[in-house]
Amino acid sequence: MLRGRSWITITKETGEEVEFDFCNNFAINEGYEFLTDTAQITVPRKLTQSGVNLFTGSNPIFKRKDKIKIEAGYHPNRRLLFEGFISHVSANIPVQLDCEDYMFLMKQFKVTYPKKFTVVTTSKKGKPLKRKKIISDNITLKQLVDYIFNEGDYNDITNDISYELVDDIKLGQFRASNATPAEIFDKLKDLYGLYTYFIGTKLYIGFASNAADTNEAEFKMEQVCINSNDLDYQREEDYTIKVKCISMLPDNTRIEAESGDPDGEQRTYHYYNVKTKSELKTIAEKRVKEQKYTGFRGSFITFGEPYLRHGDRLKMTSVKLPERDGTYLIKSVRRAFSVDGGYRQIFELGLKLD
Hints:
Layout: E1 4-11, E2 17-20, E3 25-31, E4 38-43, E5 48-49, E6 52-53, E7 67-74, E8 79-89, E9 95-100, E10 111-113, E11 117-122, E12 128-134, E13 139-140, H1 141-150, H2 155-158, E14 162-165, E15 170-172, E16 176-179, H3 181-192, E17 195-199, E18 202-206, E19 216-220, H4 221-224, E20 225-227, E21 231-234, E22 241-248, E23 254-260, E24 265-272, H5 277-291, E25 295-303, E26 313-317, E27 326-338, E28 342-352
Parallel strand pairs: 14-18, 19-26, 22-24
Antiparallel strand pairs: 1-2, 1-7, 3-4, 3-27, 4-9, 5-6, 7-8, 8-9, 10-16, 11-12, 13-15, 17-18, 20-25, 21-25, 22-23, 25-28, 26-27, 27-28
């Protein structure tokens, strides 16, 4: 029988690092739609080191803003599952640590973008005649993100973070006033359909996950599926869907196209620089076929391995029902570990890929 192990490593602001290989339980939630991946860890209240409480009391060893890593695996494997910061320490019994990934840092400072600058025109004698506040209307995604990470007096907060952009998309008249970067990323999702998420210390900004270059693992349902009660098997003819595709052009104008059932459940997708409505219509029709399929929807519980992240490909196979085999994009993952329940993963299935 497989026996999972866990390791929690906490690094204080002083740089001191402490690792302990036990906890009551932990749960991790991750997905590209969440903006912030989160974790909750439960530890004994009276946990001490050299007689000092680790998390409680007037001067605990570990506090909010300390770095934290969660690792787990079946012997001899040890895999990093989560890294981020302690965002809250509860006063409950036992103690619960609420944690956030590196998006936590993106909530610790505020920026205003773009910065206004004043142009003053003067007379021939040098006397000021007119003041005009200038704001650029040709902002790009790269300019915005570069400003967040490279300007201001908060660079020490973002020193450990790198970032990758889907493209240098033109945002037009984008404005942010006294907003946290996390609030700005939320705005990018609402206005442009751009998803922002961390993997480790690297920030990604782009459209919904594309499984073209991600990992794939096979799950034989009779061997690794613990609970599939939340999986529904649908037939193509019983499911109605309407897809709306929006293309953002470099001049900040938009093209829209729709496909599918007029009264179906609507899904909206964003693209950049798809230049014609007919091309966008073809994409919408393909999106309908991807989702109006005969296959599974929902989530299922499995063992802690094989390990996959959101955006990866999950190949589901069955000996008893081989006609239901298929490959799916993973929409989100919840990982759980406990002394009594062992090490588990809950995969939420997204699009059927084949």
